[in-house]
Write a structure and sequence with these properties.
By secondary structure, the protein is an alpha/beta fold. Helices cover about 40% and strands about 15% of the residues. It has 11 helices and 10 strands. The model has no long low-confidence stretch (mean pLDDT about 95). Bound molecules: D-glutamic acid. D-glutamic acid binds next to helix 3.
């Protein structure tokens, strides 16, 4: 992390994702730090990131980081697992000392590596995240006794975005993924995608509540608070902030779906950063 020499506590926190799924992370941060002002950006013009090449994800992420710097953010949270897997280092290099940069994978890795009871860990995520092998390599480095197996679950993202969960079909899609031999005998499961907190109850039910689920959103909110405290950047304000929500391509459908991911009604504004 850079020395936060030029940053001030009343600057906002920028949070970005490929779309609206990262609102689960924004929501966790808002719940933990209710006085921090948030600037959210969902790159709906390029959704989904899960199928894109690493070069494209890096290119998009750096441009969005510039948008956050233009909005004077003190911290940039990469609230997308795929972008965290493929573009974190590139964003960090680009941003330098101009803001703190947080990804959604390291906080999860730290939590898991500390837990000596966990030996075999499963991950469900997009194709891009799984192909990167990021959870396996970071966890192995942090705790060489742990072993990570991941599977890509591409059907789950569009299913959740359509509000299509908590029914027989979603339960059978989830069961069909979770019964794959690769993640059969695990001690914990990482929900490695922004959308998965919404199907957490169904996943818990599948495992009869016997397998702990590790949700990136909660861990990231803890990490954000910790880092802001450490750098003396927690806002002193006690007022309710007015958050701003941007997407790169506005549609009514996106605005309607935001209610699944965030606890308050949201107005999305289009930021034409690609046009
Ligand atoms: N936000 C993405 C992630 O967490 C999921 C959606 C996408 O593929 O863009 O990996």
């Amino acid at each position: 992390m850079p020395e936060s020499v030029n940053l001030t506590a009343n600057q906002p926190i920028g949070i970005f994702d490929s779309g609206i799924g990262g609102l689960t992370v924004a929501r966790a941060i808002k719940d933990k730090l209710p006085h921090e002002k948030l600037i959210y950006f969902g790159d709906t013009a390029h959704l989904p990131y899960g199928d894109k090449s690493p070069d494209s994800i890096k290119y998009y992420s750096i441009r969005i980081a510039q948008f956050m710097l233009d909005h004077k953010c003190k911290m940039i949270v990469i609230a997308c697992n795929t972008a965290s897997a493929l573009a974190y280092e590139a964003v960090k290099d680009f941003v330098g000392k101009r803001a703190l940069v947080v990804n959604v994978i390291d906080p999860v890795v730290e939590k898991i590596a500390k837990d000596k009871t966990l030996k075999s860990i499963g991950v469900i995520a997009t194709k891009g995240t799984i192909k990167s092998g990021i959870h396996a390599s970071k966890i192995k480095k942090a705790n060489s006794n742990q072993n990570v197996q991941g599977i890509a679950t591409p059907l789950l993202v569009p299913m959740i975005e359509e509000g299509f969960f908590n029914n027989n079909i979603s339960r059978s899609i989830i069961a069909s993924y979770l019964s794959r031999p690769k993640i059969k005998n695990i001690d914990a499961l990482i929900l490695g995608c922004t959308h998965f907190p919404l199907i957490r109850p169904e996943i818990e039910e599948y495992y009869n509540h016997k397998i702990p689920l590790i949700d990136a959103a909660d861990e990231v909110a803890i990490q954000v608070e910790h880092l802001l405290k450490k750098h003396k950047l927690l806002t002193p304000s006690k007022k309710k902030p007015v958050h701003q929500f941007y997407v790169s391509d506005f549609t009514d459908a996106f605005e309607k779906s935001t209610r699944f991911f965030f606890s308050e009604a949201i107005r999305l504004h289009e930021a034409r950063i690609w046009k």
